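Notes from the 1:1 (GR / supervisor)

We went over the backlog. Supervisor wanted to see one worked example end to end before approving the batch request, so GR pasted a single chain during the call. The sequence is below; no edits were made to it. Supervisor asked that the structure be written out right there so they could see what the output format looks like.
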Amino acid sequence: MTSSSESDSINNALRVIHPYLDHGTWVFDDQGVGLVKEPFVAGIPNIIEAAVGPDCRSFTAVFSDRSFPGATFSLTRDTPEAGGYWYTLEGSKLRGWLCPATLQYFPSFRKSFTSR
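Structure output shown during the call:
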């Protein structure tokens, strides 16, 4: 049985996480879905730094599988690998892999994501 908060989280149009650098690795915590120091790997750190700058140590990411006012970048799904998908940052050649933890926020890997 799914709790009300878990059900609401899956149905929300916008989601929020607070990534931060931990020993040189971008990670985030989300107690609501049981993630602690979930790392961003395989190209996603380069996409993060392109979005927030090299001196940033933490930020708030608002993201969705739909366009929304204020969104500043978009990722487009590319190829599957190891239970996740590779995504390309719109307007660049930067690619990054989103792992199966993405499924904590969406019922399937989406064709695209937008964020600010």
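Supervisor's comment: The two ends are 33 Å apart (CA to CA).
Batch request approved.
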